[in-house]
Amino acid sequence: MNIIKGAPERQLLAGIGDTVSKYTALYDWKLAGRKTGENVDDFACMLSYMAFDSIHHCERGELKNPDFIHMLTNALVMGGLAMEIAGCSRPSSGSEHLFCHALEENHSDMVSVPHGIATAMGSYPACIFQGRNTQKIEAIIKRFGIPVKPSANGVTEDIFVQAWQEAAATRSDRYTILNETDLSDTRLKEIYERMEESFT
Q1: CB-count exposure of residue 1 (10 Å: 0-12, 13-18, 19+)
Q2: Residue 113 · residue 154 · CB < 8 Å
Q3: Can you give the residue ranges of every domain in the chain?
Q4: Which of 195, 9, 196 is nearest to 114 (CA)?
């Protein structure tokens, strides 16, 4: 807890962002279970969702407050335990992480975004691709002020579009919503503009 408390605020926000991404990661894992027969561990799913839920129901307070640090520490530990039980990163990593990998692997010369902030940035479009209401994710992002506005992180419209279109190839063995959704330039540009307008 003392290590987390001593982290810069941007890194604390990245920790929250990485917890937010479990919402879309779990959907992708269950989708893969239905479509490919991939094993989905229910207990790992429960732990991962509990980590997300603790952030979802947490009111915005001082990030360095001991109660908040305790809650965030528990959420991060639960996420780690979920992956240990599953034997893979599936409880915490889905299409939103593939977007993050594309940024890190293909656009690092132009963009440098903390991992957790990039995954939170990816969770919002992933939720749209999954046909789900974005309200939960949007509420957390705005409540804590996670800086996911693409342009504020150096992610231009072109980079955003390319990263999503490259995302699935970064982990070609991982089935996610990206295997069956529309990733056309037009749709991705619309989502980019929506994010630019929705987040400060």
Answers
A1: exposed
A2: yes
A3: 2-198
A4: 9
Percent of the chain with pLDDT over 70: 99
Please enumerate in sequence order all residues whose Cβ is within 8 A of that of 200, keeping only pairs 6 or more positions apart, or say none.
Answer: 149
Q: How open is the CA angle 61-64-69, to the nearest 5 degrees?
A: 85
80 and 55 Cβ atoms separated by less than 8 Å: no
Q: What share of the chain is helix, strand, coil (3-state, %, to 5)?
A: 70, 0, 30
Structure confidence by residue, pLDDT tens digits, 59-113: 766 777 888 888 888 999 999 999 999 999 999 999 999 999 999 999 999 998 9
Over range 7-19, report the average pLDDT. 87
Q: Supply the pLDDT for residue 61.
A: 64
Superfamily name and number for 2-198: Dehydroquinate synthase-like - alpha domain (1.20.1090.10)
How far apart, in Å, do the first and last CA atoms of the chain sit? 29
